[in-house]
Write a structure and sequence with these properties.
Number of helices: 9
Order of helices and strands: HEEHHHHHHHH
Distance between the termini: 37 Å
Radius of gyration: 17 Å
Strand content: under 5%
Largest sheet: 2 strands, antiparallel
Strand order of the largest sheet: 1-2
Number of domains: 2
Length: 195
């Protein structure tokens, strides 16, 4: 996919911000700042899944987790309500970082508003753009993070989490998820959740 100069500049600024993430991840023999790697995976997945996605969608996907490490999960109660509060704060946090970067890259207010609305996950199931970003998030989770995540939780908890994930993803997204190369254990968990 051909990237505009503005888009390349925005990606570089998002990545530079995420490069300050103190958390790292090894992938294919290389060490990455965790959120840089996540952002690259999100972009790659969007390009594979929806290669015709508009520029505002490409921007939203790239900065979906920008500055995520700056609000620690344990700064909220470690229960469901605390988790939801943390997620809500993170969404706002991402928009506060992304907005000025997009302005600095000369994006217009309409584009910036669309990106922010996507980061806030507004109108899931009603808005095809929000559904698309949610599909990409779920597909990246299944492909790169689900196996490790499943090792840290009981089967019962994992089936519950996957049922919630399956409610967010579109039928097309589910089809694509089942094509991903995954361990037998993960596939079994997904099939239990789907049942």
């Amino acid at each position: 996919m051909q990237k505009s100069e503005k888009l390349q500049k925005a990606f570089a600024k998002f990545d530079a911000y995420n490069a300050t993430d103190p958390n790292t991840e090894e992938f294919e023999g290389k060490t990455y700042a965790k959120e840089v790697l996540y952002a690259e995976r999100m972009t790659k997945k969007l390009n594979d899944y929806a290669p015709e996605a508009p520029e505002y969608m490409q921007l939203a996907v790239r900065c979906q987790h920008i500055g995520r490490w700056e609000i620690a999960r344990n700064s909220y109660p470690m229960d469901r309500a605390g988790y939801l509060m943390w997620r809500s704060q993170l969404k706002l946090h991402h928009t506060k970082i992304a907005g000025p970067i997009l302005k600095d890259c000369s994006y217009d207010e309409e584009t910036i508003s669309k990106v922010k609305a996507l980061l806030l996950k507004k109108q899931l199931h009603q808005n095809p753009d929000t559904q698309l970003i949610e599909d990409v998030i779920c597909l990246v989770f299944v492909e790169y993070y689900l196996d490790d995540f499943a090792k840290q939780h009981s089967e019962e908890k994992m089936v519950d989490i996957l049922q919630k994930t399956l409610k967010k993803i579109s039928p097309h997204g589910i089809e694509e998820a089942l094509k991903i190369n995954m361990t037998a254990h993960v596939k079994e968990l997904i099939l239990k959740a789907a049942a």
